[in-house]
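Whether sequence alone determines local backbone shape is best considered at the level of individual chains. The sequence in question and its structure tokens are set out directly beneath this paragraph.

***
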Amino acid sequence: MQYNKVEISGIVTSKLKVLKEEEKIRLIKELRAGNKSVRETLVNGNLKLVLSVVQRFSGRGEDPDDLFQIGCIGLIKAIDNFDVTLNVRFSTYAVPMIIGEIRRYLRDNNPIRVSRSLRDIAYKTISEKEKFMNKYQREPTMEELSKLCGCDKGDIVQALEAIVEPLSLYEPIFSDGGDTIYVLDQVGDNNSDTNWLDEISIKESIKNLNDREKQIMSLRFFAGKTQVEVAEEIGISQAQVSRLEKGALKKVKKNL
């Protein structure tokens, strides 16, 4: 597959119809009423959603065709379990389901060996969590998971941590109008061993920024706050913080 050609698994996705939200809800209601023929329309009308999720996992050396097919399994699960009575967009529910299916596939193919007992506990926990969320439309507490799985809370935590794949700090997690937010942007900097000469140079460069940029840079790099925390403190969105921060950093680099 090549993303520029948007052709994957023998499907030219650029020619696929994208269903509107009201169409999705109507078709899902028909499916619930017993009309199985609409399933294919629902799947085809959401394949671009699967493709957008698959693109998040690019650059990992995995076959995109394989990830796309695994993502389609997550899409089908989302179609089968989506509750049309809730005031939630289908994509809001489907994306985490698709991501979860792909992550399970990547965990199964992880070269890092995890003991069978830990893997069994982890998969049982994930399965019980999905059942709980489908039934109650919320995440279970650790106490509830422990009771459902019949396992100690500590064993559950250890098992889930054991199967988590390494996450790149530069993995995109959100995009708003072209302003992409990465994992790195969610991490605060509380390193007390920062080179004081570099800090002085940065402070000198920040003097040339406007007041809003100075405030963001100060909170981010001297107070060690995340973009989320900065956004809450100054009353703007995280996407705006990300955009202003990147612009300020360009100015600082130029001055340095």
Remarks:
- DSSP finds twelve helices and four strands in the chain.
- Strands lie at 7-8, 11-12, 172-176, 179-182.
- Residues 54 and 68 are 6 Å apart (CA to CA).
- Confidence is low (pLDDT under 50) at residues 1-7, 189-197.
